[in-house]
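Materials and Methods. Structural model of Nucleotidyltransferase domain-containing protein. The 298-residue sequence of Nucleotidyltransferase domain-containing protein from Olleya sediminilitoris was retrieved and submitted for structure prediction as follows.
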Amino acid sequence: MPVLKTLLYFSIFNYPITKEEIYRYSEINSIEDVSKQINYLLNKNVIFQFGSYFSIKNDKHLVNRREIGNQKAKAILPKAKKVSGFIANFPYVESVSISGALSKGYYDDVDGDFDFFIITKPNRLWIARTLLILYKKVFLLNSKKYFCVNYFIGSNQLSIVERNRFTATEIVTLLPFFGKEAFSKFITNNEWTMQQFPNIEKVNFEAIKNIKKPLLSRFLEFILNTSLGNTLDDFFRKLTLKKWQKSFGHLSKEDFKIAMKSTKNVSKHHPQNFQKKVILSLEESYNNIIEKYNLEYL
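The predicted structure was written out as tokens:
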């Protein structure tokens, strides 16, 4: 039942959604089919309606929370775009997008931050990442509030391996600001997301700005496009991996491999392994509700 699964997914984030959003984040053929499933679930008292919003949770305060978060996201987005432009100036960065809650139109002053998804040139990911982390530690006093650079991929490895509802949602909601060519190739390499969400809006590639590197970045790239760059990139990867293995040794080998991926052209820093928690929670809740209410698989 696509409507139920979609509502359950967003309920994990305490985020009521509209009929149009249910359609957008599901594989349902038409908005009429969405309405049919919504009415079925309402009659079964499985879901709740608050104006134009629907939720698994019977809590109207979540609507107010969402609307306030939506307003704050609109207000803070220009700042996020400005930071994106700053990141795009760093050596070897080919594309910068906003991810996380902000990319979905929500921002919280207390817990909110700017999550960035960054595409780098091949085999120079760890140099780019290290320079950005050093900037954060030295000039931002290690604050991640507006500078959370936790996911990097190289432009020679654009296909996302973990293919599930969580990663598909994160991909189709990315807000790309800089690096049109690299981001276009990224979307092409992840067309599998269209199977999950065939009703999602197409990316407006014309709105993505090209990156023009400043002189300093171009000079550093010229110096590091050598065997020195190869050595440094390997050194930074091994150094970071050793640090993460020490800090997050409590993670199982399997969880560490996904949440703290540290290959030559992929770097993830997700120690909470939120992806796994969301997917497990979704499947468990979905099966429990189907059984509890004896629902038909519409």
